[in-house]
Design a protein that fits this description.
alpha+beta, three-stranded antiparallel beta sheet, 9 helices
């Protein structure tokens, strides 16, 4: 059943004082409703700007504490000023209190203005899907380990796997959503998920349910020795770095280097902690330029000195 925010209108009638005649009012033309433009015809789609976050709603917080979870979908008209109108829950949660809280929260939202291809602010219809509560936690199992064969071949990259957790807490329908381009790595993650066990999923009314989930894992020998780059970097050798870089480049023809997880990680380190790299304090523009230069220097020097440490060469860049 659809739930719609009620529109409350207050009409105040002025009563003339004794001896006074009522003053006739001039009829005002009715405001024309804005033209609704399809999303495909927009040059700028509306984006969230401000308003009450659904995760902070009392009923949503209560659901998270209980381990309940579910989905809601709202539909609304986004007006030219970014205000939501005609808000409807096309997929309510089934929890009447929570549904009311969601509608009230959405009424407080402000989005960026929808803009058509002529540059005009317009109105558009939009859908807003939400996941409410907390999904089942893993009770047993662990992250996938990089197979030795993958290490020897310098395979690396990010794998995203999707699956369902059945009402008994067992993972089913495990499949790769985004491949690393390495069957060894993809299969390692699928096997790790299949061997895991989870809490029994409960919907937003506390009833047994199934739950759709995704797991993302990045594989790189730079992460070895503790499961994170921060520990693995200390022993990450140049020959391994070049091997992984060359394999990834060959496996992703035409891809930008910024799509490589390790490249992005080092860019974050350079921007957040330049002093830890021995670079001192730099302004933002210098930091943005320093990372690509340091990376290029590391690539060049690591090809010349395969036994050196990657981090040492990167710092010198």
């Amino acid at each position: 059943m659809k739930r719609v925010i009620p529109l409350v209108a207050c009409l105040m009638l002025a009563t003339p004082a004794p001896g006074q005649s009522p003053v006739a009012s001039t009829p005002q033309p009715e405001a024309q409703p804005p033209t609704i433009v399809e999303a495909a015809q927009l040059s700028q789609r509306p984006r969230y700007s401000m308003g009450k976050q659904l995760d902070d709603l009392p009923e949503a917080l209560a659901a998270s504490r209980k381990g309940w979870s579910g989905r809601a979908v709202a539909s609304a008209t986004v007006l030219p000023n970014g205000v939501l109108s005609d808000i409807t829950l096309t997929e309510p949660t089934g929890n009447a209190v929570l549904d009311a809280e969601i509608l009230t929260a959405l009424a407080s939202w402000r989005l960026t203005s929808p803009v058509d291809k002529a540059g005009n602010k317009v109105a558009t219809r939009a859908k807003f899907p939400f996941m409410i509560g907390r999904g089942p936690e893993r009770l047993s199992g662990s992250e996938a380990e990089m197979p030795q064969a993958a290490k020897l071949a310098f395979h690396n990259g990010k794998v995203v796997a999707g699956f369902r957790i059945d009402p008994a807490g067992l993972p089913t329908e495990v499949k790769v959503v985004r491949s690393s381009k390495s069957d060894l790595l993809d299969n390692a993650l699928v096997a790790a998920i299949a061997a895991s066990r989870y809490e029994k999923p409960l919907d937003l009314q506390g009833r047994p349910a199934s739950y759709s989930a995704q797991v993302t894992q990045n594989f790189s020998q730079a992460e070895q020795g503790g499961g994170s780059y921060l520990t693995g970097l200390k022993s990450y050798r140049c020959d391994t770095f070049i091997g992984e870089l060359d394999w990834w480049t060959a496996a992703h023809p035409g891809a930008k280097i910024s799509e490589l997880e390790f490249y992005s990680f080092m860019g974050g380190v350079a921007f957040i902690a330049p002093e830890a790299l021995g670079w001192g304090k730099l302004d933002n523009l210098s930091l943005i330029r320093r990372h690509p230069a340091a990376w290029a220097h590391a690539v060049e020097q690591c090809r010349k000195e395969p036994g050196a440490r990657f981090l040492e060469q990167y710092r010198k860049g």
